[in-house]
Design goal:
Layout: H1 2-13, H2 25-37, H3 43-46, E1 50-58, E2 61-62, E3 78-84, E4 89-96, E5 103-113, E6 128-138, H4 147-154, H5 171-182, H6 189-195, E7 198-206, E8 209-210, E9 232-240, E10 245-252, E11 258-267, E12 270-278
Parallel strand pairs: 1-6, 7-12
Antiparallel strand pairs: 1-2, 3-4, 4-5, 5-6, 7-8, 9-10, 10-11, 11-12
The structure holds 2-acetamido-2-deoxy-beta-D-glucopyranose (NAG) (6 copies).
One 2-acetamido-2-deoxy-beta-D-glucopyranose (NAG) binds near residues 59 and 61.
Length: about 290
C-alpha cells in the first residue's frame, strides 16, 4: 500500500491540467509515467489509470489484464515514452535486464478523456483513462534478443525532443516514413527501397543487433529483403512530432506472423534510428 500511495502522490504533485476533454501532452506524459512506475509495483497500482473495462493485447492477442506480463512486476533499466496528442495515445519502450526474466517491451496505450470532476478520486492524469493497452513483449527466444546488449546501444542514442519547432516533421511525413520502411516487405522490395527516406547516419537496432558502428556513414539499408514477401499488416501507430518518433505495432507476416514493433526516429524527413522487437524464434524469411 505504501508504494501505491507514493506513486499516486508523485502523479498528483505534478501540475497536470485538469480535464478539458483534450489529451494534453502533460496529461499523456503523466499517464505513461504512471504505467512505467507501476511495472515495478504491479497491476493493482496501474488500475486507477484504466477505465473499468479496459482491454489488453499482448503480442497481438487479446489477453486478460491478469493473464500476461502486465500482472508481473519488473524493474525497468530503461524507459522512454512518446506522446500522440492527436490520437490520444502514448508509446513506451521498456528494457528489463533481469537475468532470469529479461524483457524488451513496446507498449501503445490509447486513452479517452473523462470528466474527472465526477470521479470520487478527483482529477488524475488530466482526466485521461486508458481504454487499451497494446504490448509487444520480447524476451529470451525472440528475434535477436539480448536485453543488456539492446540497452547498451539505446543509451548511446539521442531521442530527445526536436527543440526547434520549425524543424519538426509533420504527422503525415512521419507516418509515411514508417510505412515506406515497413513496405519493404511487399510485392517488390527493390522498388520499395527506393522510396524509403534513408538518413545518414542511420542506425538500426534489430532486437539487439546493431547496424551502427559510431560512424558518420552508418546505414540502415543493409540486409534488406529482396524480391517479394508477405506484407506487414495490422499496423497501429503512435506518432509524436516533437520527438520525431513514429511507432508501429504490426503483424510481421514474413516472420511467421510474428507480433512486431518498429519505432522510427525521423529527423528532417529522414530515418535516423530504427528499433525493432519481433516475437519470433523463426529463421529470417522462413515460414
Ligand atoms: C524512466 O526514465 C526516466 C529517465 O528517462 C527516469 O528518470 C525514471 O526514473 C524512469 N522511471 C522508472 C520507473 O524507472
Ligand atoms: C466499455 O466502456 C465503454 C466506454 O466507457 C463503453 O462504451 C462500452 O460499451 C463498454 N463495453 C463493455 C463491454 O462494457
Ligand atoms: C492467444 O491467447 C490464448 C489464450 O491465452 C492462447 O491459447 C493462444 O495460444 C494465444 N495465441 C497466440 C497466437 O499467442
Ligand atoms: C462534468 O460533470 C459535472 C457533474 O456531473 C457537470 O456539471 C459538468 O458539466 C461536466 N463537465 C463536462 C465538461 O462534461
Ligand atoms: C548478451 O550480450 C552480452 C554482450 O553485450 C553478452 O555478454 C551476453 O552473454 C549476452 N547474453 C546472452 C544471453 O546471450
Ligand atoms: C521491381 O522494381 C524494380 C525497380 O523499380 C524494377 O526494376 C523491377 O523490374 C521490379 N521487379 C518486378 C518483379 O516487378
Amino acid at each position: 500500500m505504501r508504494v501505491q500511495t507514493l506513486g499516486l502522490a508523485a502523479v498528483l504533485s505534478s501540475s497536470i491540467p485538469l480535464a478539458s476533454g483534450q489529451c494534453s501532452r502533460d496529461a499523456l506524459q503523466a499517464a505513461a509515467d504512471h504505467y512505467v512506475a507501476t511495472r515495478s509495483t504491479g497491476l493493482m497500482n496501474l488500475r486507477p489509470l484504466l477505465i473499468e473495462n479496459a482491454s489488453y493485447i499482448e503480442n497481438n492477442n487479446a489477453t486478460a489484464l491478469t493473464g500476461g506480463v502486465l500482472s508481473q512486476t519488473m524493474i525497468p533499466a530503461h524507459n522512454r515514452s512518446t506522446i500522440d496528442t492527436t490520437a490520444c495515445a502514448t508509446y513506451t519502450e521498456l528494457i528489463v535486464v533481469d537475468e532470469a526474466k529479461p524483457y524488451v517491451i513496446g507498449t501503445q496505450i490509447r486513452y479517452k478523456a473523462t470528466n474527472t470532476s465526477s470521479s470520487p478520486d478527483g482529477p488524475r492524469y488530466g482526466g485521461l483513462r486508458a481504454v487499451l493497452i497494446d504490448s509487444v513483449v520480447s524476451t529470451t527466444g525472440s528475434w535477436m534478443f539480448n536485453a543488456s546488449q539492446t540497452l547498451s546501444h539505446v543509451i548511446e542514442e539521442n531521442w530527445g525532443p526536436i527543440v526547434d519547432a520549425s524543424k519538426r516533421d509533420t504527422r503525415a511525413t512521419l507516418q509515411q516514413a514508417a510505412d515506406r520502411y515497413l513496405d519493404l516487405w511487399g510485392p517488390n522490395a527493390t522498388a520499395a527501397a527506393e522510396k524509403v527516406p534513408w538518413g545518414t547516419p542511420c542506425r538500426r537496432l534489430e532486437g539487439s543487433m546493431y547496424t551502427g558502428q559510431g560512424r558518420p556513414d552508418d546505414r540502415c539499408d543493409v540486409g534488406l529483403p529482396e524480391g517479394s514477401s508477405p506484407p506487414n499488416t495490422n499496423r497501429r501507430y503512435v506518432i509524436d512530432e516533437e520527438a520525431g518518433s513514429v511507432n508501429v505495432l504490426c503483424t510481421f507476416q514474413t516472420m511467421q506472423d510474428a507480433p512486431d514493433s518498429h519505432e522510427f526516429r525521423v529527423e528532417g524527413g529522414r530515418l535516423r534510428y530504427v528499433h525493432t522487437m519481433t516475437v519470433c524464434a523463426c529463421v529470417f524469411g522462413g515460414r
